[in-house]
Design a protein that fits this description.
Elements (H helix, E strand, L loop, with lengths): L6 E4 L3 H12 L4 E4 L4 H8 L8 E2 L3 H6 L6 E4 L5 H10 L8 E4 L5 H12 L4 E8 L1 H7 L2 E6 L4 H11 L2 E2 L2 E2 L5 E2 L2 H29 L4 H11 L7 H11 L1 E2 L2 E2 L13 H12 L4 H13 L2 H8 L14 H34 L5 H7 L10 H11 L10 H24 L4 H13 L6 H12 L3 E2 L7 E2 L18
Parallel strand pairs: 1-2, 1-4, 2-3, 4-5, 5-6, 7-10
Antiparallel strand pairs: 6-7, 8-9, 11-12, 13-14
């Protein structure tokens, strides 16, 4: 009798194939299935040749080849495709069986699916999978959440195939419902922010007239210090890359795409009232980049400053750029963890923030030395409300903030757009302000909309003023602005 599979995986794009081969390498028998069945045989005859991977010709065939309780992982396009497969799978499964969604699904969809499948006795997991094709093959960062009873069923598989950081698996249970996909969404939002910050540093270097080789050397140096990370490393490689026509980078069209997770992070921040300003600017920067034709037209009509980008000491200013990038990166993660904390409060998730930082230490796109500092911050204080209040990060920003201010101010004077660097600095200055001008804002809202205000020392008591003498004395209850 043929050996039964430990897990099935549906979806044989490159990520799915690599994850199957990773599982096979760690001793697990995987049953592969794809909507286009020809792909299964092609995979078995090529990439999976000589492995223990088995194939299925239908969903029923796949279910028949699984050990009980059955574990089926989906790596298909987020949205309706996931729901379609769930509808087809449920009649074939038994209570206690498990469906895992490893795609970039919206966390609300995962929460809904958990609730619907629980009524039918089927366990459900929504797991973030980060690391791209390389991570899937050799060790991704995995962020599973959903029905907690499912975790013992997949723990051995997930912690075997994931990346390891200092011997620890970059995978642990995140929380109930959509917690795993929410954390992955924030991860992707931080990824957007990190990439935009690096692009702004690159743009400043270009403005200073640096060659690609000089820029690559700078990123090489930065990667040996506190900015040591996957994204800094690949930026160095991209800057160094040449083909038969020379450096490739300058020939790439400057319009950026997006798949939605950065936007979802910004939308979630607005929904929960968390000032995730840097990620928002990173998303809008991609939107602005997409207006290529308009920008080309505007470049011939809209003038910037006459001052050229010059500095008396380029080496010194490069240090300022590095420090500004570092401070802004601290703010990016600060905002991301603020958003996760608010979501945890909203959904009653018990998120382990230090554990999340550890999950991101290896395998994923935002992996970096820096995440070890975040893990240590939450180890020192598991109730830390804001990373900027941790002694280590507070001292680092204090040490580097003069550079940060130099870079943002010079960029403004030179006409070099730095939306993420400047948004991060504005957030820092706002967060450290005992008083903000929101008192005037509240007065304005009360003036035109009778929205009321609180007085200092009388918090919780709401007042309305008839500012013009011709308005009413009754506060608004329906009009919102």
């Amino acid at each position: 009798m043929a050996e039964k599979a430990d897990i099935a995986l549906i979806g044989l794009a490159v990520m799915g194939q690599n994850l199957i081969l990773n599982m096979n390498d760690h001793g697990f028998v995987v049953c592969a299935f794809n909507r286009t069945v020809d792909k299964v045989q092609n995979f078995l005859s090529n990439e999976a040749k000589g492995t223990k991977v088995i194939g299925a010709t239908s969903l029923q065939d796949m279910v028949n080849k699984l050990k009980k309780p059955r574990k089926v992982m989906l790596l298909v396009k987020a949205g309706s495709a996931v729901d379609d497969f769930i509808r087809q799978l449920v009649p074939l499964l038994s209570p206690g069986d498990l469906i895992i969604d490893g795609g970039n699904s919206e966390y609300q969809d995962t929460t809904r699916r958990c609730e619907e499948l629980e009524k039918q006795g089927i366990l459900y997991v929504g797991s973030g999978v980060s690391g791209g094709e390389e991570g899937a093959r050799h060790g991704p960062s995995l962020m599973p959440g959903g029905h907690e009873k499912a975790w013992p069923l997949i723990k051995d598989i997930f912690q075997a195939i994931c990346a390891k950081a200092e011997g620890e698996p970059c995978c642990d249970w995140v929380g109930d419902g959509g917690a795993g996909h929410f954390v992955k969404m924030v991860h992707n939002g931080i990824e957007y922010g990190d990439m935009q910050l690096i692009c702004e540093a690159y743009d400043l270097m270009k403005a200073l007239g640096m060659s690609q080789k000089e820029m690559a050397d700078a990123f090489e140096e930065w990667n040996r210090g506190e900015l040591d990370s996957f994204l800094i490393e690949i930026t160095r490689d991209i800057l160094n890359f040449k083909d038969d026509k020379g450096y490739l980078l300058e020939r790439i069209r400057d319009t950026a795409g997006q798949k939605g997770t950065g936007k979802w992070t910004a939308v979630a921040a607005l929904n929960y009232g968390v000032p995730v300003t840097l990620i928002g600017e990173a998303v809008f920067s991609r939107c602005l980049s997409a207006l290529k034709e308009e920008r080309v037209h505007a470049s011939h009509h809209l003038k910037g400053p006459a001052v050229a980008a010059t500095t008396a000491d380029r080496a010194e200013f490069l240090k300022h750029i590095k420090n500004a990038l570092y401070c802004s990166k601290i703010v990016s993660y600060t905002q991301g963890f603020m958003l996760m904390r608010e979501a945890a409060r909203e959904f009653k998730w018990r998120l382990n923030y230090g554990g999340i930082a550890l999950m991101w230490r290896g395998g994923c796109i935002i992996r970096s030395r820096f995440l070890g500092n975040i893990k240590e911050a939450f180890t020192r204080n598991s109730n830390l409300t804001n990373l900027l209040l941790d002694d280590f990060f507070r001292k680092e920003v204090t040490r580097c903030q003069d550079s940060w201010r130099q870079v943002v101010s010079k960029a403004v004077l030179w006409g070099v757009p730095v939306p993420a660097l400047s948004a991060a600095l504005a957030f820092y200055d706002g967060y450290r302000s005992e008083r903000l001008p929101a008192n005037l804002l509240q007065a304005q809202r009360d003036y035109f909309g009778a929205h009321t205000y609180e007085l200092l020392g009388q918090e919780g008591k709401f007042h309305h003023t008839n500012w013009t003498g011709t308005g009413g004395n009754v506060s608004a209850s329906t009009y919102q602005a």
